[in-house]
Design goal:
HIT family, subunit A, 345 residues, alpha+beta, three-stranded antiparallel beta sheet, 2 domains, 25% helix
Length: 345
């Protein structure tokens, strides 16, 4: 049963984007302080973790004794298909509407003490398959125009629970970054007959300096235009609008590259590397997205151990990033790391 609350979207007329108002989420459970505990103290099962198997969540629901991926509807959703149809009328020139959609939580593993970087390739393949199913299931709903799958990892990005998990926001609008990316991709395809992201991959392969790793069908690179010091893109080499369109062989190759990048992240400072990881997938609103190229992005907040990339005047105030590092140098740092996780040595 979902937590009672109000779900509202308010239009930002200057940025031309929707802002979700979900004040009831302020009271959602928080156990983020456990993220920075010494690694040897993190148990495989935690009695006070509402994501561990068999434990009771705030809603009163009891988690099953799951052994693989476990997915459930978020107990504190920011959007809901049951959002009240009657909301306070927006004043003046403003406009608003109910925040309709679905929010889900995806637990990667029953193990409380692992991260995505510590899972084996078959386990990551299972997770990718679950993401495929969720994208198709949620995207087929008539009220859903976009399915955003993302992981917030680490206390510095505000994760509320260290148990390895991600979230899914399936919404009645398309998130601004995806909307912009889809428009740019479609325009490039119309003007040139070529796919924009494939052109990016081709340029990175020609230069080579920013490629982290690749195999037959998947590639990881730190892009020429990176905004964060260790921003990495992972993508299939062939163009697909979503993860759901990948073949089994492409999913396996993607899982291998994803795992290798995550291990290199952790090995760099021998710590569980924090990041925000969104999956960039085509909207599900029925539009023409032939030029959209599915990929995964990593936005790590750290420039050095314990040194954040602060978003300040240029980024928040002006809307353009100012990078303090060279992508070529940071790509070299990641390539220099072992592909065996430091905890396994």
């Amino acid at each position: 049963m979902a937590h009672k609350g109000t779900w509202e979207e308010r239009w930002h007329p200057l940025r031309e984007e929707w802002v979700i108002i979900a004040a009831h989420r302020q009271d959602r459970p928080w156990s983020g302080e456990t993220v920075e505990r010494e690694e040897e103290k993190i148990p495989a099962y935690a009695e006070d973790c509402y994501l561990c198997p068999g434990n009771v969540r705030v809603s009163g629901a009891v988690n099953p004794e799951y052994e693989r991926v476990f997915i459930f509807d978020n107990d504190h959703p920011c959007v809901s298909l049951n959002a009240p149809g009657e909301i306070a009328h927006a004043p003046g020139i403003y406009r608003n509407r109910p925040a309709r959609g679905l929010a889900r939580v995806v637990c990667y593993t029953p193990r409380h003490d692992l991260t995505l970087a510590e899972l084996e390739v078959p386990e990551i393949e299972n997770l990718l398959a679950a993401w495929q199913r969720e994208y198709m299931d949620l995207g087929n709903h008539p009220e859903i125009n976009h399915v955003l799958i993302f992981e917030n990892k680490g206390e510095v990005v505000g994760v509320s629970n260290p148990h390895p998990h991600c979230q899914i926001y399936a919404t009645n609008f398309v998130f601004k970054t995806i909307e912009t990316e889809a428009r740019a991709s479609q325009r490039y395809l119309s003007e040139t007959g070529r796919t924009l992201f494939r052109e990016i991959i081709n340029t990175e392969q020609q230069e080579e300096r920013r490629i982290i790793c690749e195999n037959e069908t998947a590639i990881a690179f730190l892009p020429y235009f990176a905004r964060y010091a260790y921003e990495v893109f992972i993508a299939p080499k062939q163009t697909h609008p979503s993860l759901a369109a990948l073949s089994d062989a492409e999913v396996q190759d993607l899982a291998e590259v994803l795992r290798e990048v995550l291990i290199r992240f952790d090995n760099m400072w021998h710590t569980s590397f924090p990041y925000v990881m969104p999956l960039h997938q085509a909207p599900t609103d029925g539009g023409d997205y032939r030029g959209f190229h599915f990929h995964i992005e990593f936005h790590p907040p750290l420039r050095k151990p314990n040194l954040l990339k602060y978003l300040a005047g240029p980024e928040i105030g002006g809307g353009n990033f100012l990078s303090d590092t060279a992508p070529e140098e940071k790509a070299a740092e990641l390539r220099a790391q072992s592909i065996v996780h430091y905890k396994s040595v």
